[in-house]
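Researcher: Here's a chain I'd like modeled. Treat it as a single chain, no partners, no ligands.
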Amino acid sequence: MDTIILMSDSKVAAIPVAECGEPLVDVREGGALLTDPQRDDARGAFAHLRTSVHGRLLDAQDRLPDGLRLLFVEGYRPPALQRTYFERYAAGLRAANPGWPAERLRDAASRYVAPPEIAPHSAGAAVDLTLATADGQELDMGTRMNADPEESGGACYTAAPGISSRARANRELLSAALTSAGLVNYPTEWWHWSYGDRYWALATGAPAALYGPRELD
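Model: Modeled as a single isolated chain. Structure tokens:
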């Protein structure tokens, strides 16, 4: 696999944010996207994205073969929740690897949960999603959604070797549709795609991110 730039890399943090002020919208409105019925929270935060990110997902869905849909699992994540996820995962890594220095621990944690200060989910710029049939049956993607590197033996990496040919084809199909719509993938998570955040800006050569972390109105 090519060298992967992690979310913890200083090059990501160095990207400036030119916040455009675009609102967060609820992707459940209109029913164009399938959403995971098991995901919910009191305010429905998980189902929100910036307007342009939502529009690009609809564009990507239109590029899929007949009978397939995008299954939306999680979009916006409040900054406090992002911090909780990061610290919890880092604590587990620290317990399993007590000799690791702080920098290595931060890098390892960022393979799976972005550091809170640059997290695309908290900007409403990132989405976790997969492919499904029209009636919501998930396709084989090689791992379950949100399988961490330890659990999956690295199979969660988008270009991981050793997954089945069917799972590889499904990942490539998902990638083709989303890339064509202007989103970028975080290569340690086949399900994580974003537009307008710092990682997107670094990957595409944009001078600045369009969205920074924010609270849900």
